[in-house]
Amino acid sequence: MVDWEGKVALIQCAKAMGIQKYVFYSIHNCEKHPEVPLMEIKYCTEKFLKDSGLTHIIIQLCGFMQGLIGQYAVPIVGEKSVWGTDAPTRIAYMDTQDIARLTFIAFRNENISGKILTFAGPRAWTTQEVITLCERLAGQDANVATVPVSVLRFTWQLIRFFEWTNDVADRLAFSEVISLY
Q: Tens digits of per-residue pLDDT, 52-62?
């Protein structure tokens, strides 16, 4: 709720200040996953921004390559466990520097104001492919703990009704996203 209220206040403030162009980073396909709180907030913010009258660009991102370093590469090199699922989900990760460059180009192009752009890397990767690449580059095998998506989904269904588990339930809601692709 705080995230949503903050986004609304920021857009309203930008409009009141006469900001010339507003750039909003969203998540690719967020409109397809209203059961995932973060995805719902992103989609609702997209709609609010469109209705605000502000000149804007919405950039939907697939995934950040830099996140893979801490999630997979560092643990593999440090001989720690990495976690994955059995889902065949593919994500077209991008370097944040490339996202910044493309954003700057989009920002300067007047013909794309009011548009939704999707930024995606040149190749989509499964979790297992990322782990295999990290193993090859590290020159060692990973200790991989695989959690079936069905277990994540069941756990989410079980704990989402308890207030004290809301944060965990919100993260587990992504099991619905990864199970659809």
A: 999 999 999 99
